[in-house]
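Working notes for the structural subgroup meeting. M.R. asked for a predicted model of this chain before we commit to crystallization trials. I am recording the input and output together here so anyone reviewing the notebook later can reproduce the run.

Input as submitted:
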Amino acid sequence: MAQHFRVVFFFFFIPSLVVCQYTDVINSNRPGIAVSAYAVGKNVVQAETGFLYELRDHSVLNTNSNGFGGELALRYGLLFEQLEIKYEGTYISENITFENFDLEERRSDFSRNRLGLKYLIFDPFKNPEANKPNLYSWRANNKFQLKNLVPAVSLYAGATFTLGDNPFFAEDPTISYRVMVATQSRLTPKSVLIANLAYDRISSDFPELNYAISFSHAFRNPKWSVFVEHQGINSDRFSDLLLRGGIAHLFSPNFQADLSLGASVKNTPFRAFARTGISYRLDFHKDELVPIDQKNNQPKIKKGTLKKKKQKKRRKKKDDFDF
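Returned structure, recorded in token form:
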């Protein structure tokens, strides 16, 4: 596993690229696990929710289990376009069978329960003059270019809450901490690459390092898109390598549905899972733009102001020559 994380560490220092901060169409993190570098936009309220089903089979411990659960993420664009506050929760009910002892056990609690802030620190599209489209070539605007390897980068800081006697994290304190770097790259107008590197459950006895790399592509009909994702998890308590793939459909600018399947690449335990869900937003966003004169990119002057300035200038000249 150490080699995998060294490779991913260097990956974050290779430049990547993205879409603008606020978009007219919902920008959901589903159906993957990887988190976008961009916030939802100031005053936008967004919910991303769904259901999951998972099978586990541990070849060494000789256990097998199946679990069903619900997921919820609530996102809100707070104060600035670049800032987002986010809650993430996953509740699991799992039946586990210990074959060696002919024993069954049922576990239910939050496998994820955290709150945090994400802030965009670098946006390669902040200067529109540097990203003007080529008006003479469709191919030039849609092909991969080296400049597309410049990343949008955001930082995340938050806390994970383990409440009561949680059977999944019995040794963890009530509050532990999480930090993350998220990057997003628009390789082409229809292809996006997202990468996350996170250090989770800081201050617990089992801190966790994990990464996720997700690639999404929209079809010719942009209402449909597909994704593939790789996730790595490493801690003294649990390590895994996961692969996912799925599809999403945009029903309206504010509503998306998704379906995904995934599995682990190891058998201690082997995991297979399915997820389905929806994303919906309430869009209260308002553009805060300074009016611009289209001819010279200067702030517009109110009607009559220029005329008054000219009249004042003429009066001043007349006074200068009136002896």
